[in-house]
Design goal:
Length: 303
């Protein structure tokens, strides 16, 4: 059925607009129903222009980058999904090196490129899935580092205009930010991250060490990444294991036998089965251990 929204979308984006597109292939878990509309953008300027056009038309949208840390519902997403493929990366060397990345750049790739140039500071990000924009939005981190420790400033677009915002203005906390908690309309266009001059061989050695640790402790296969935030002073994976839930399955969704905070798609998994496992883990850990597990993964779409 052609709606007024469809007509408006087609008027704005023309042949670039895709309709009724399955989102599962665009997520790290390979799970999710269709988006009514999908638009791919290839630069920060293209992303900004699309967002501004949609806001002016009074239309909502969702931005999808690397597709990690999200669970898309089986029913899909009823508005426009912007697939962020803005990936320009520019390294600035000198007395104080830094890197400027568009928000669709994969942060692990940026970390590896920095290492190849003998620039340190992003080793923690070499095993982190997802994009720079997602890392800015959720204060991604690993191995003692996080975006709050590297970000110089981020180029943020809102309906009121475009402005650079630093870590203090983004109010970073553990896996959270003002962008994630505020619920307002905002788009991360790019980010500048602080680096240090180092030795390429040493930086690459640290990345190999982190990669080995990650492979030894986290399961392979399709997943969303860490399902829950670690509670203060504890670990979500330990709590799930202590509650006797490792290996639990609903349909083709499984709580990993390697790490309890990873929920795996073992084949043709439905989002509702993952959601049921989430509910099981939260309920059981609360009943047995009196701890509320807070989702790190975001639920997208119609639930």
């Amino acid at each position: 059925m052609i709606t007024d929204m469809t007509v408006t979308m087609r008027d704005i984006f023309g042949e670039r607009l895709q309709e009724n597109v399955l989102l599962g292939p665009y997520t790290s878990a390979r799970i999710g129903g269709p988006a009514d509309y999908l638009l791919e953008v290839r630069s920060a300027q293209d992303l900004a222009q699309a967002a501004q056009q949609l806001w002016r038309a009074g239309l909502s949208f969702t931005i999808l980058g690397g597709g990690s840390n999200v669970l898309v519902s089986d029913r899909g997403v009823r508005d426009l999904v912007i697939l962020n493929r803005a990936k320009s990366v520019q390294f600035e060397r000198g007395a104080q090196p830094f890197v400027n990345c568009e928000s669709g750049a994969v942060i692990s790739n940026v970390a590896h490129r920095a290492a190849g140039l003998g620039l340190s500071g992003l080793e923690w990000a070499a095993t982190v899935p997802g994009t720079v924009g997602g890392a800015v939005y959720g204060n991604a981190g690993a191995f003692g580092g996080d975006m709050a420790g590297n970000l110089i400033r981020a180029d943020i677009l809102t309906p009121n205009g475009r402005a650079w915002r630093g870590p203090r203005e983004l109010d970073y906390g553990y896996r959270s930010s003002a962008l994630k908690q505020g619920g307002g309309k905002a788009v991360v266009l790019s980010a500048e991250m602080l680096l240090q001059t180092g030795n390429a061989a040493e930086v690459q050695a640290r990345i190999r060490e982190f990669t080995s640790q990650r492979k030894a402790s986290q399961p392979p296969g399709a997943s969303m990444g860490s399902m829950f935030k670690n509670p203060p002073g504890d670990f979500a994976g330990r709590l799930i294991e202590a509650a006797g839930l490792k290996g639990s399955r609903i349909g083709s969704a499984e709580i990993s036998t390697v790490h309890g905070n990873f929920f795996l798609n073992t084949g043709d998994t439905r989002a509702e089965d993952v959601r049921a496992l989430i509910d099981l883990a939260q309920r059981t850990v609360l009943e047995k251990l009196d701890v509320n597990l807070e989702l790190e993964v975001e639920l997208l779409g119609e639930w």
